[in-house]
Predict the 3D structure of the following.
Amino acid sequence: MSLRALLPASCAVVEHAGGWPVAALHPDEARALGPVAEARRAEFAAGRACARAALAALGHAGAPVGRGDDRGPRWPAGVVGSITHCAGYVAAAVAPAAACRALGVDAEPNQPLPADVLTTVASATERRWLAATPPGAICWDRLLFSAKESVYKAWRPVVGTWLGFEDVELTVDPTAATFAAAIAAPGPFPHLAGRFAITPTIVITAIYVPAA
Ligand SMILES: CC(C)(COP(=O)(O)OP(=O)(O)OC[C@H]1O[C@@H](n2cnc3c(N)ncnc32)[C@H](O)[C@@H]1OP(=O)(O)O)[C@@H](O)C(=O)NCCC(=O)NCCS
């Protein structure tokens, strides 16, 4: 687990690896989710449990985390945040809006993307970089995917518009464990900077934009 290490101290981060916590939903959260399969409810509840624990650390104990029309989390006033889950890992990060303008976190299995997905996710330039970069212990294609998901999660709540994979061009610095995203769509963030962490099983990415 290392999302904590990717984000500044102003963020509260709660993460669980090796299985999801069994957690009850706040009644408002259960209403926002609606009728879904049990596996989806468990995933959603684990993310909400992390989110509520992180909110408590910021002084918002007991606050439910709703769900917007865009399917993103709805945070209490004055808070920004982001949630992620994948097999064996779940996390939420929140920060005061006074300190943080945008926050996006994403976790993915450290496994290669299916080839047909890669052509959707990565540009020709990104695919050339992948071809020239030794894989080692890191699935760089999955890292690209995760970084673009973090970009979207940071972008969408602030800007309110869709971003396609083709709108974002990534440059990864494997040594510094950072990435830079150039965003072609109109909006306040032509560039976003992120950090990543790798475990044997999980790729984690995070974007934190400080308030001006
Ligand atoms: C929303 C999306 C980014 C989620 O990423 P994912 O890797 O599939 O799944 P994760 O488990 O990491 O994240 C899921 C969580 O993202 C959050 N999320 C969903 N929609 C969101 C939005 N519009 N804005 C911010 N966060 C959102 C939710 O908290 C969700 O969990 P929950 O439904 O249990 O609350 C992804 O499904 C998606 O729609 N992508 C299309 C947009 C995109 O990626 N464009 C290209 C990138 S530039």
About this structure: The longest strand covers residues 100-109. The pocket of coenzyme A is lined by residues 43-44, 47, 70-73, 83-86, 106, 148-149, 151-153, 156-157, 163-165, 168 (CB under 6 Å). The chain is about 30% helix and 30% strand.
